[in-house]
Amino acid sequence: KGGHAEGRTKTDYLYLDPESGKNMAVSGIRHTELSSDTVNTVNTHGTGCTLSSAITAFLARGLGLEQAVRSAKRYLTSALEAGADIAVGKGHGPVNHFFRSDGRPQCLLTRLTDEIMNASRVQFITHSTGRYSWYDSAMLALEGGCKWIQLRMKDADDDEIERTARLILPECRRRGAVFIIDDNVDVALRTGADGVHLGRNDMPVKEARRIAGERLIIGGTANTAEDICRLAEEGADYIGCGPFQFTTTKKNLAPVLGLEGYRKLTGMMKDRGISLPIVAIGGITYGDIGEIMKTGVTGIALSGSILRADDPAAEMKRVMESF
């Protein structure tokens, strides 16, 4: 677990045998490295038992081995951070296993609760049209019962994004919805959003995690098997995968996947033990949902099809009732 090494970072190495660890091959060596910043604390008693117990707990929740180890390492790091200022007796004190109740930033254990996982099954991505502003589109989705709002404002500056985010966030809180900022870690942190979503050409997930630590859900966009493996390696919490078909709501569109593309990618994930939530995106309408969900994806993301409806809130409600 790297806890006794010197330096500004700690690195753990996960080794798997050739049969179960095909996805772990790095330059011919079957291992993967997991690094994090050193936590300045003497309260390190019990880190080994904590790490192994957390790995077991995440495995029991259905995560693949690599993701379970990554999640457990994040849990341990957060427990070390939360216990840094605790004074118990003399010498090396224990880590703070109960950090979720003391108001400090939450870790992956909290981020990936069943409630949040269920919310991620239907995501709405804001879009500005001749009829609706970004704010309006978010309000309509919330009115329809959506529990996951992603604020995407590609042509806006940081100030406008932040102003809009501060209007939408209280409504998400009031309705128990997850609020994600697209492609802007700084705004997500300043506004107290739940997370950030990063496109294929945006900041790498690994860099976003270094900046935000465990304060944000971090999602990434994928179009290929290589994208998915990279995002899993960098520690993404979920993957937005697409496009399903042609869409006018996004510029620089990647190659269309279709149903067969999703089947191949979810099959690859199963073969390689990658258990991240994968959300289909891109040109999806209500009539597509049933067949898409049969491909093995975790959920779907909608935008244009909702806003083009005569009654967007009612259309979102119809989608929600299908899950």
Automatic annotation (TrEMBL):
GO terms for molecular function: hydroxymethylpyrimidine kinase activity; metal ion binding; phosphomethylpyrimidine kinase activity; thiamine-phosphate diphosphorylase activity. The keyword Disulfide bond does not apply. The keyword Transcription regulation does not apply. Residues 133-306 form the Thiamine phosphate synthase/TenI domain. It catalyses: 2-(2-carboxy-4-methylthiazol-5-yl)ethyl phosphate + 4-amino-2-methyl-5-(diphosphooxymethyl)pyrimidine + 2 H(+) = thiamine phosphate + CO2 + diphosphate; 2-[(2R,5Z)-2-carboxy-4-methylthiazol-5(2H)-ylidene]ethyl phosphate + 4-amino-2-methyl-5-(diphosphooxymethyl)pyrimidine + 2 H(+) = thiamine phosphate + CO2 + diphosphate; 4-methyl-5-(2-phosphooxyethyl)-thiazole + 4-amino-2-methyl-5-(diphosphooxymethyl)pyrimidine + H(+) = thiamine phosphate + diphosphate. Keywords: Magnesium, Metal-binding, Thiamine biosynthesis, Transferase. It comes from Candidatus Cryptobacteroides intestinavium. Transmembrane segments: none annotated. One of its GO terms (cellular component) is cytosol. This is Thiamine-phosphate synthase.
